[in-house]
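Hi all, long-time lurker, first post. I run a small reading group and we've been trying to get comfortable going from sequence to structure in the token notation. Rather than ask abstract questions, I figured I'd post a concrete chain and ask someone more experienced to write out its structure so we can walk through it together at our next meeting. Sequence below, copied exactly:
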Amino acid sequence: MLEDVRGIRAFLVGFHSADHADQAYIHFVGVDPELRQQGVARRLYTTFFERAAAAGRTEVRAITSPHNTGSIAFHRALGFTPSAPIADYDGPALDRVTFRRAL
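-- Answer (accepted) --
Happy to help. Here is the structure in token form:
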């Protein structure tokens, strides 16, 4: 999390999988639009990777909408491998792209 006198400016919500001891999952990330393109999200992800690896996790997963081309490009730049869009992943007409990244 990144916080200053204005409040919370960026955060990452992630967890270690309860079902797969080798996996961690990034659920949600938010960065104040004023801070975008400054490496804030990359730093949040890097910290999460370090903590997941220290806990014995060897893979991180994430998902996004197939229409979120910025998110797809960002995840690729961080070394994630995307899937093809998966139809109805989150319910009817809620297609998603899944990502995997080895630690």
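A couple of things your group might point at:
The mean pLDDT is 96.
The chain has one domain: 2-102.
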